[in-house]
């Protein structure tokens, strides 16, 4: 068992901190500053990551524990926990299962069913730890519905973008539905983005199977690391093509990376991080290409810099929206 280590905050242990962070990360919304503090805590020491991952594993195991047992664990006297450090994990997991189960989670107990909904606001990014040990990072303006049962793990990205790090489980495929497409894996790392006209998939590690949501089982495109595809509104899956997965997932560190991107693509991406959409004034302007890196939380800086990079100007309309026009 992992040794308990004292942390810099005094008597509290790394294990206590891990349990507190785990609870916070399951809340309906978490501020960007709070998420940054968690990332910093996780990076401070390998022990932090070890304790957090162990707690995730225990949480994942709670679907095998009868509901009455979980409730009994919640009633364990605090004094006894000081003598039984491992039980603190069980209590933390059972509190999540029973107390939070009254709100976001439902059906956790004898049925082994887990369901939850997670969402992000404009400019917010959020990290989610799922009960099977999988990790999800949600981009700005995203919404994720999760339902796990004993034989399957189902997720629906109803809007936005998510990076999935899926815990391997050959007996329970992990299926992500996103608009007209769906992605099936048993364990890998990939990004899914749902736009108004298409769903885009990019793989960083492992292999995924992408198909139209209504397609037969044998109709799919297989992707490995460094490959991506797109599913159009009619459920047609494009042939696999090479992608820069690091650039596509730079949003996780608060960056917008454009590598020879058209201004149409730039405007669509920037609009994800602004109250009002950014438009392109003409087809000719939309075809101009941009290579640069900006901060996703400061898209005003991008708009200020754009006229010095390309022969364009940025026009602000009465409703607050902005348009890129020829100069």
Helix content: 25-40%
Query: Biggest sheet: strands, sense, closure?
Result: 13 strands, mixed
Number of helices: 10
Give the C-level CATH assignment of the largest domain.
Mainly Beta
Descriptive report:
- There is one protein chain.
- The chain has ten helices and 18 strands.
- By secondary structure, the protein is of the alpha+beta class.
- The protein has three domains: 1-106, no CATH class; 113-245, Jelly Rolls, CATH 2.60.120.1440; 254-326, Phage tail protein beta-alpha-beta fold (3-Layer(bab) Sandwich), CATH 3.55.50.
- Strand 10 (207-212) and strand 11 (221-224) form a beta hairpin.
- Helix 1 runs parallel beside helix 6.
- The model is unreliable at 1-12, 76-88 and 97-110 (pLDDT under 50).
Name some characteristics of this structure.
327 residues; alpha+beta; Jelly Rolls; Phage tail protein beta-alpha-beta fold; 13-stranded mixed beta sheet; three-stranded mixed beta sheet; 18 strands; 32% strand
């Amino acid at each position: 068992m992992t040794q308990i280590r004292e942390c810099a905050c005094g008597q509290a242990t790394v294990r206590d901190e891990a349990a507190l962070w785990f609870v916070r990360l399951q809340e309906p919304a978490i501020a960007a500053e709070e998420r940054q503090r968690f990332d910093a805590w996780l990076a401070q020491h390998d022990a932090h990551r070890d304790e957090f991952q162990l707690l995730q594993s225990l949480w994942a195991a709670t679907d095998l524990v009868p509901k009455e047992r979980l409730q009994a664990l919640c009633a364990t006297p605090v004094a006894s926990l000081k003598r039984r450090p491992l039980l603190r994990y069980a209590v933390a997991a059972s509190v999540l299962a029973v107390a939070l189960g009254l709100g976001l989670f439902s059906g956790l107990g004898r049925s082994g069913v887990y369901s939850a909904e997670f969402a992000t606001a404009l400019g917010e990014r959020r990290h989610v730890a799922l009960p099977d040990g999988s990790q999800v990072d949600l981009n700005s303006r995203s919404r994720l519905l999760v339902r796990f049962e004993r034989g399957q793990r189902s997720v629906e990205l109803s809007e936005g973008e998510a990076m999935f790090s899926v815990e391997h489980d050959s007996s329970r495929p992990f299926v992500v539905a996103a608009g007209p497409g769906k992605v099936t894996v048993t364990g890998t790392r990939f990004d899914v983005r749902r736009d108004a006209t298409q769903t885009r998939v990019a793989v960083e590690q492992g292999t995924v199977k992408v198909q139209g949501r209504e397609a037969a089982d044998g109709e799919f495109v297989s992707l490995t690391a460094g490959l991506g595809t797109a599913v159009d509104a009619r459920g047609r899956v494009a042939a696999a093509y090479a992608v820069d997965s690091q650039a596509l997932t730079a949003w996780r560190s608060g960056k917008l990376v454009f590598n020879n991107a058209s201004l149409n693509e730039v405007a669509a991406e920037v609009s994800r991080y602004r109250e009002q959409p950014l438009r392109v004034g003409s087809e000719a302007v939309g075809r101009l290409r941009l290579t640069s890196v900006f901060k996703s939380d400061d898209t005003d800086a991008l708009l200020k810099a754009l006229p010095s990079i390309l022969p364009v100007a940025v026009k602000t309309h009465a409703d607050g929206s902005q348009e890129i026009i020829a100069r």
